[in-house]
Sequence to fold (352 residues):
Amino acid sequence: MSKFWSPLVSSLVPYVPGEQPKMANLVKLNTNENPYGPSPKVIEAIQAELNDSLRLYPDPEGESLRQTIASYHSVKSQQVFLGNGSDEVLAHIFHALFQHGQPILYPDVTYSFYPVYCGLYSIEGKAVPLTGSFEINPEDYRQPNGGIIFPNPNAPTGRYLGLEHVEEILQANPERVVVVDEAYIDFGGETAIKLVDQYPNLLVCQTLSKARSLAGLRVGFAIGHTDLIDGLNRVKDSFNSYPLDRLAQAGAKAAYEDEAWFQKSCAGVISERERVAGALSELGFEVLPSKANFIFARHKEKPGESLAKELREQGIIVRHFNKPRISDFLRITIGTPEQNDALISGLRAPLA
Ligand SMILES: Cc1ncc(COP(=O)(O)O)c(C=O)c1O
Fold:
């Protein structure tokens, strides 16, 4: 606390990102990064941009990248909004498109940045409980609201909601913006982008941090009706006109030009996810069905917190949330086969 802080800053409860430890040789399975690394074409494209042009500002609209993403998803480039990671896109969404006076609805177990943005922009948030099996029930989103947001697949549960149920939520809320945060969609879900031309209240948000393995580059985007994108641009151009630097624009574009790398990377994560889920079940875990690049699991006897601690002592880092309903769980990012083997054998000793 400082006398120099504004009343708003004094009241904020900031997001706490997963740890980025400085120690070497860790098996780092705590922040849902992709173990396989970006396409070599991304590295080449970034290296090609390392020249005198860095003295010039980048394209504020990121037009070339927007066109690439638009044609990949069969929409118009005017339907694409870019941001410095999807976190920045989400922040602008809360600011630009959610109404005050009625609460923003999101699941009780979900991405913990949503309530933080509510605090930052002084809008009320309301946590809607997931079912007993940690699923989103579309019926629960038939209540007065100023907007709706949920990840699909949800995080940290990994559970996926079929598009027919996403449509139920959209149809029940035609006067409100419904945001589907698809950070993990490429690991087995079906994107709602195909619905944006049908539903002017739908905004789909994606990131290059997960399936395209570019968490360090910071690129995210939203796709929706041009009215929604125009609203986001008004906020962006009142905040920072150049969210994506030259290297990020070039690297992100190249990521979309290497479909084979992307497909191989996703397939590798998906097959390892199924193997790890099977091994954890054999070790006595209840594993929630996941369509993400992580799994959410609790042991029948051993609490999550002590398991996370014992793994850490072996140099294996997973995420534990000390929060209602989920304090028994571990969220485990899917790593390389070797990292996953280390995890499975690392769990054997504490569970013996
Ligand atoms: C559900 C969800 N949305 C958005 C993000 C933010 O991703 P980024 O800012 O790296 O694009 C994350 C990051 O872990 C996430 O889990």
